[in-house]
Design a protein that fits this description.
By secondary structure, the chain is an alpha+beta fold. It is built from two helices and seven strands, in the order αβββββαββ. A hairpin with a 6-residue loop joins strand 3 and strand 4 (about 70-75). The mean pLDDT is about 85.
Length: about 130
Amino acid sequence: MKNKKKYFRKGDIVVYTILIIIFGVFTAITLNMKDEKASNVEIYVSGKLQYLYPLTVEEKNIFVDTEIGGVNVKFKDMMVRVTSSNSPLQICVKQGWIKNPGETIIGIPDKLIIKITGSNNKNKNIDYIIR
């Protein structure tokens, strides 16, 4: 009989099985992280937490005083954005609406960071999730 060529060796099957298990675990972890819901907005000026607001459905505008004048922040439909700024390039205004936990708006000249934090009842002992 002729020798048939084998496409996979025993070692190949073991390596492929291990890779499939690893990707399956990472997929399960990633899908589990989506349970976090946006609940609060933290506004930092010059590296210090200045304001903490709950996300709400109704529209609300606030003014945040910064080192170069200030920014107007708008809350609407569980989202937040910067509507105007005194910075020259207006990058924080151009970033638009954010609504998911972990998303940020950063204004460098203003020394401003707006971050959405979430609440997850399953993992209360986790501080941050890096994505």
